[in-house]
UniProtKB/TrEMBL annotation:
PROSITE patterns per the UniProt record, alphabetical: MFS
Gene Ontology MF terms: D-glucose transmembrane transporter activity
Transmembrane segments: 6-32, 39-56, 101-120, 132-153, 216-235
Membrane topology: Multi-pass membrane protein
Organism whose genome encodes this protein: Climacteris rufus
Pfam families: Sugar_tr
A GO cellular-component term linked to this record: plasma membrane
Keyword annotations from UniProtKB, A to Z: Membrane, Transmembrane, Transmembrane helix
Subcellular location: Membrane
Main location (coarse class): membrane
GO biological process, alphabetically ordered: D-glucose import; dehydroascorbic acid transport
Gene assigned in the entry: Slc2a5_0
The protein, known as: GTR5 protein
Coiled coil: none
Span of domain Major facilitator superfamily (MFS) profile: 1-236
């Protein structure tokens, strides 16, 4: 029946957001517990599994596989585990003078990825009745590239020093990333940040909402985020 098809289509579209919410809630804990690099590798594995579910769903004649794939994509992709961990990792491994530029490029490539996805989704390309499984599986390609390349990169130096207390590992990672030289100033900055964090209480979401000192900052963030959603960019 048409009502059933509408319900299934709505579930396929919205389950991505449900996965995204879960990914956002656990991304901070995973990044602090296992490090940004391992977090990204875990996210790559989820994306590849999601791509396989979407790509083979037509062959298996299973809409449930599409639901599972979309849910896993929501957990790992976009502004969820992958986006949160990627921005932190890219900023922490980049030299100080390029850090701001590197952080901004994440949003540039996010917008570029959306544009490419919309172009590939045209009926003349991969949006046809016979090729849509390839379109759903395309998210696995960049995940596979990163899964193969990322093991050759070191863990984030701030994570090694601040969370693991591994000063030698931090120095080794810095030399691997930035070359030989005097990097004591960067290490001192990380130590200062670690000392500051010891004296700073990490608030939960509920505590943040209840804290009067952050009330106006929270209002501004909510208004800006809502404005982005209402500006018409999704329609474009």
């Amino acid at each position: 029946p048409r009502e059933t098809l509408t319900l299934l289509w709505s579930l396929i579209v919205s389950v991505y957001c449900v996965g995204g919410m879960l990914g956002c809630l656990c991304s901070g804990y995973l990044a602090a517990k296992f490090g940004k690099k391992k977090c990204l590798l875990f996210s790559d594995v989820l994306l590849i599994i999601a791509a396989l579910h979407g790509g083979f769903s037509r062959t298996a004649k299973s809409f449930e596989m599409i639901l599972v794939g979309r849910f896993l994509e929501g957990i790992s992709a976009g502004r969820r585990i992958h986006m949160n961990a990627h921005v932190q990792y890219a900023g922490e491994i980049s030299p100080k003078k390029f850090r701001g530029f590197i952080n901004v490029t994440s949003m540039v490539f996010l917008a570029l990825g959306k544009a490419v996805a919309r172009i590939l989704g045209l009926r003349e390309l991969l949006g046809s009745q016979s090729l849509w499984p390839m379109l759903m599986a395309s998210c696995g390609l960049p995940a596979l590239v990163q899964l193969l390349a990322l093991p050759f990169f070191p863990e984030s130096p701030p994570y090694l020093l601040m969370h693991k207390g591994d000063q030698e590992g931090c120095k080794k990672a810095i030399r691997q990333l930035w070359g030989e030289g005097q990097h004591q100033a960067e290490i001192d900055d990380i130590m200062k940040e670690k000392a500051t964090m010891k004296n700073t209480k990490i608030l939960s979401v509920l505590e943040l909402v209840k804290e009067p000192a952050f009330r106006w900052q929270l209002y501004m963030i909510v208004i800006l985020t809502a404005t982005i959603q209402l500006c018409g960019i999704n329609a474009v």
